Amino acid sequence: MSGADTVLDIAAIIAAVLGGLFFTAGTLGLLRFPDLRSRLHAVTKADTLGLGFVMLALSLRADSGWEIAKYATIWVLGMAVAAVAATLLATDPDRGAAI
Fold first, then answer.
1. For 78-93, how does the pLDDT look when each residue is reduced to its tens digit (9 = 90+)?
2. Backbone angles phi, psi at 36, to 5 degrees
3. CA gap 17, 53 in Å, rounded
């Protein structure tokens, strides 16, 4: 095992742990915040950042550029889905406007 592999392993571990911490923070925000907007903010922001760190950790240990492209695509789609889902959940169906 070379020094570069060790550095990549350490960076991947740090990114994965940070991702897990952001997922945990988003989950705690979902459970603890008082209103819908606060809860949606916690979930969309923290979980998107957590997903980004997990995808970074996987990308650091990927064997090819194709895998890295897949991880980047997953992250971009995750950001888009989080934004759309939060908007749909915060919209009042009777008025068609955000709550």
1. 999 988 888 888 776 6
2. -60, -45
3. 8
pLDDT in tens, 9-30: 999 999 999 999 999 999 999 8
Pseudo-torsion of CA 48, 51, 55, 56, nearest 10°? 70
Beta bridge pairs of residue 91: 98
Q: Which two tokens stand for residue 54?
A: 């997990």
**Contact predicate 74/57, CB 8 Å:** no
Say which DSSP state 62 is in: -
**Domain ranges across the chain:** 3-98
Q: What is the pTM of this model?
A: 0.85
**Which range has the worst mean pLDDT, 21-25, 36-40, 52-56, 69-73?**
36-40
Query: Exposed (0-12), middle (13-18) or buried (19+): which is 44, by Cβ within 10 Å?
Result: buried
Do 60 and 14 meet the contact criterion of CB atoms below 8 Å apart?
no
